[in-house]
Amino acid sequence: MTSEEILLREALLLGIEIKLFWFVALLYGICFIVGIAYLISSNNDIGRKLTLGLRITVVVHTILILFRTVEGMRPPFQNLYETLSWFAWFANATYLYAQSRWREVHLPGFIISGIAMAACLYSLFTRSPVIAPLPPALQSPWYEAHVITAFLAYAVFVVSFSVEVCYVRFKTPAEECPGIFGHIDEDFHRWTHRLVLFGFPFLTFAVFSGAAWANDAWGRYWSWDPKETWSLITWTVYAVYLHTKAIGKWKDTPASVINVLGFICMIMTFLGVNWLVKLFGIPSLHAYAV
Questions:
Q1: CA within 20 to 30 Å of 202's CA: 2, 42, 228, 246, which one?
Q2: What predicted TM-score, i.e. pTM, was given to this entire model?
């Protein structure tokens, strides 16, 4: 096969992948619109359609990720274009796993579909889809373990945030009948703590494996790089959240506020730091992720 034929083949595959990615973003958008209709109508049949739509979307999104893996001949989380897609898929898959254990509660899917759609569109509109060789910083045995565990933690925290928002806005006292969106009661709210409790060890491992990765790549475990600093802030906020659940007067509203703050810090770690580094010209060893 000549070099021209190889380039044509790669261009064809990339074109197919981009079309598939747009289709995935469209599916998340449709789910988001269905979620708005559910929010307005409080019709549980529409809520079930929202969950069904997210199930269909996660299947198509899985095909996209597998296609990108074959196309690039490596796991698809080298750059921000790929990690935004990975983040959306992980959040949706984690939500669907948790949702299968709830009693006819579909509203968090509205938030999940909105976040996933925003991640996909941000990737498609602002990032280059071109598959490039791995930069030296990513050529480490810690690379895959760090990224997979970090995004698993992020996905779990996104679902916890969506449950928290739904509970704060539409909670139903346990002694009453289900509200208009189902059993959004204390049993449902306990999922915020369970999810963070599940995700926190993965975040902890991501921080430590990131330090090991940094030592491999740059010769030191910690350099107070902006991304490293924000990852530590995120870890600290979620550690505080877990402690608040053991303190009687902190386990309700203060815990909810800290959980939402943890989500904001997580977004800052994932995306916000990139914007700050670019906007203010802050030196960063993680410039390859910008």
A1: 246
A2: 0.90
